[in-house]
Amino acid sequence: MSAEKACALVKELHRNQGTLPPYNNDLVNEVTKEITQLIQENRNDAQESERSRGSDLLEGVSYISTIRVRHAAIQRNLRCLLAYHYNRVRSLRTMRWEFGSILPADIKANLSTAETNWFSKYSSILAKYMRSVGEDGGVNLAVDLHPPKALYIEVQCLVDYGRYELSDGSVLLLKKNSRHFLPRVECEELIRQGVFQHIVI
Amino acid sequence: MNPDEVEFLAEKQLISIIPTFNSNVIHLISGDVGPFRASLPVRVPLWMAINLKQQRKCKIQPPDWMNIEQLEELKEEEKRSKTFVKMPSEHYMIEAKLLLNYATDDISRADEIRTIIKDIWDIRMSKIRSSVDTLVRNAGFYATVDHLTLMEINTMRPLLPHALDQVYRMKKAQSTRLPTQSTTLSLLNSSHRGSSLSS
Amino acid sequence: MSLQSYTPNYFSIDDILASQERCPCKFIVDIPKLGRLNPSAESNDLKAGTTLELPMWLAEHLSAGRHPIIAVELPRIYKEAYREILKADACAVDLHKLGLYFYEHGLYVKQFDARGDVSKILLETFQVRFRQLMDLANNIGSDPAVQDRLDSLERKLFKEGHAARTRLNTWLTDSGTPIEAAAMVINHKKRKRVDVEDII
Q1: Beta carbons within 8 Å of B192's beta carbon, 6+ residues apart
Q2: Pairing with A4, which of B49, C64, C136, C181 sits 20 to 30 Å away (CA)?
Q3: pTM for the complete prediction?
Q4: Which of B73, B70, B23 is nearest to B44 (CA)?
Q5: Architecture label for domain B3-157
Q6: Which of A10, A198, A199 sits opposite C16 (nearest CB)?
């Protein structure tokens, strides 16, 4: 009645800002059920009020206040439910820009089926758009976020990444703690994804 | 804006260098640069000057204002004045930072210059802080930012504009007093709100 | 960096949580069947005259219109006694203790305050405390414990201001700004580390 479950959903997102907690299927279902139930109760009471008004009995009970309380609760539940889904998709969108098109497994596990679908659709729309910009095979909008200072930069590898192919076809073996001097464009995305650390002298 | 974005804008500023190489005119989107003749001064954008300097292909001629006497005078004036004094360059702080980092050997008494510029910056920063405080306290509608450089204005972003937005929300809340329980009041108020929206 | 300052909207998590804050409400009419709203009574109906602490979203809805169901009272922290404390020295007050959403809740509450004292004290409090907030964000000569005494709106401003100041300081001292890992990536790594520590 006081939309506490729905609010718990929103609180869950608030507590986990900057990441995505597991999709709370159980609670979402409970809130949906509560909404349907409140609507049903309101419909019953509205019909009963209507019937008693039609009869000659002046004592007919008015449920108008009851209905108003329930109606407020329905709207509140709905708002929380929508806000929950909306804000999850928002952070999912940010993740596409920050992690790239492949999400870490533990984050992937937290998505609902609809969210997984949304993510792959968004990824492909975005990729298609980036390819279509300009003439020369498109523009990668996820790089050059800061004004560049030099064409080459020094980076240190933070994880055992394995083989990495550069755009000229040569292959690098990226081991933890190895240092590389590479074209900025080749490593910016890996820095953003936490594979490299940019070394500034 | 990030400071490095402001720096990027400032790097368009022209500066004199004495190249140690020969080259024809270079055509850039921003305009032509050169031709370069060894030991003949030429004006190039700051970013190019720094880049050539790093490759030891030029000597940079520091701007005229970058000398102890003029800066001391400026510092005293800044101390005396209640308002902000006009700086010799719109991007004095960035030029100083880049030149003092990459071209120390081209500047005489570089360390002293570094200290004075830092002093001027600090005096201006504390002026900014107190005037921003006054602005918020009085819920002022505007502030004069004459003679403030882009980097200085940028130090108050996003805190100041966001705080002013909140002041505005609270001020607006004061002027639109919503209805209390009484019906007549709520009717009166709703018409009042309607008129304030249209005006 | 968020480019937009905080403005409440339908999907805003902060606004939803702020409107969950409660205020005392007195029921003017009987509400059949909804006795369960009052946890301390067992009757089926809710009787007129009952006073309950209702969340703001409900209070706002039920007090509005031609036929209000409830009369809303000012929560304690917006009453005169507290307003006097804020007037005396707003900087010394622990707003966080008064309410996580002191300003946002207040902006809702002010509609039940016909004299406008609440909206006045909100504005004054914010204006007086701003200097402290700015100095805190700039890390100069202020007590770091002040951070715990900010309400959620101030905290948001502080975080933005502090992040901007850190970037400026890096720019002032370092020769170049490094490219950094994305915020969510850093967050994810941190969490992973915590998880591993939990297992060990």
Answers
A1: none
A2: C64
A3: 0.86
A4: B23
A5: Up-down Bundle (1.20)
A6: A10
